[in-house]
Specification:
- The chain is of the alpha+beta class.
- The protein has a single domain, classed as Mitochondrial glycoprotein (Mitochondrial Matrix Protein, Chain A, Roll), CATH 3.10.280.10.
- The chain is 35% helix and 22% strand.
- The protein contains 7 helices and 10 strands.
- The strands form 2 sheets. An 8-stranded antiparallel beta sheet has the order 1-2-3-4-7-8-9-10. The protein has a two-stranded antiparallel ribbon with strand order 5-6.
- Strand 7 (165-171) and strand 8 (174-182) form a beta hairpin.
- The radius of gyration is 22 Å and the shape is elongated.
- Residues 7-16, 23-35 and 41-61 have low confidence and may be disordered.
Length: 271
């Protein structure tokens, strides 16, 4: 069951849209996601077999709430089932967790974590390079395979976080802002091996405001686009770096997901 519900939720999920104005705007499809989760819960988790539930749950006396909280009949059936499932899921996710401690930097970029948002900053001469992205709604499975109830995590595919990210190149009070996103394998142009592309470019003095002009990466001159990509590579933002950014985002998102599960479990088991 490890992450099947989670993968089902995310296969049809949405990637956050970034602009130089706001770091994220999220599209939601809550009804569809809840229905997918519920379908997989009943298909895969109508539990006659509780073999993976912790011993605390299995060995609780009949007069004690079966969710393992140690209290006397204080939870509803739905709450008990939720806590039982979360107990299993948290153990499974922790076992699958590849990175236990989130690094404080990537290739010279210092990381600042603020909830779901990550900022990577590097100082070079009189210029500051700042990369900002948000891990919410950024996880998808490689290849987006069809998910079946009996599939395990390895068959579903690795969950990777591929966020859109904003790059600010700051000199004095002038900022060049480039919004970038990952390119899918079917979207790459012939002769190019870039894994990310430029979606938007703008430049402004002081703080950003609604009057700042921005141009889409799709309409700028192709030679200018290539020069900007080369410029970013000189700043350390290459394919290799962006792969590491994805790995970092994946590890942090997974950690945040486990934290969410633990918060849900605590909330459901408390009275």
């Amino acid at each position: 069951m490890n992450s099947i519900v989670r993968a089902a939720l995310r296969i049809n999920g949405f990637r956050p849209l970034l602009s130089c104005t706001k770091t994220s705007v999220y599209a939601k499809n809550a009804v569809q996601q809840r229905q997918l989760a519920r379908n997989f819960w009943y298909m895969c988790n109508v539990r006659n077999d509780h073999s993976t539930v912790s011993s605390t749950v299995l060995k609780s006396p009949s007069e004690i709430c079966s969710c393992g909280c140690g209290k006397h009949h204080v939870h509803s059936k739905a709450e008990k089932e939720l806590v039982e499932f979360l107990t299993e899921e948290i153990l499974a996710e922790r076992k699958a967790q590849k990175v236990k401690a989130i690094p404080t930097e990537i290739d010279g970029f210092k990381a600042t974590l603020n909830g779901s948002e990550i900022t990577l900053t590097k100082q070079a001469d009189k210029e500051t390079v700042k990369i900002t992205f948000n891990v919410n709604h950024t996880v998808d499975t490689d290849g987006e395979p069809e998910v079946m109830p009996n599939m395990d995590k390895a068959e579903i595919g690795e969950l990777k976080s591929k966020p859109s990210f904003k790059i600010d190149l700051i000199r004095g009070d002038v900022t060049v802002c480039l919004v970038c996103s990952f390119i899918g394998p079917n979207e790459q142009e012939e002769g190019y091996n870039d894994i990310f592309g430029i979606d938007e470019v703008s430049i402004y003095s002081g703080s950003w405001n609604e009057q700042v002009y921005a141009v889409s990466g799709e309409v700028i001159d192709s030679y200018l686009y290539d020069l900007l990509m080369n410029y970013l590579e000189e700043k350390g933002i290459s394919n290799e770096f962006v792969e590491k950014l994805s790995d970092y985002s994946t590890a942090y998102e997974h950690s945040a997901y486990i934290g969410l599960l633990e918060g849900l479990s605590k909330f459901a088991s408390a009275k």
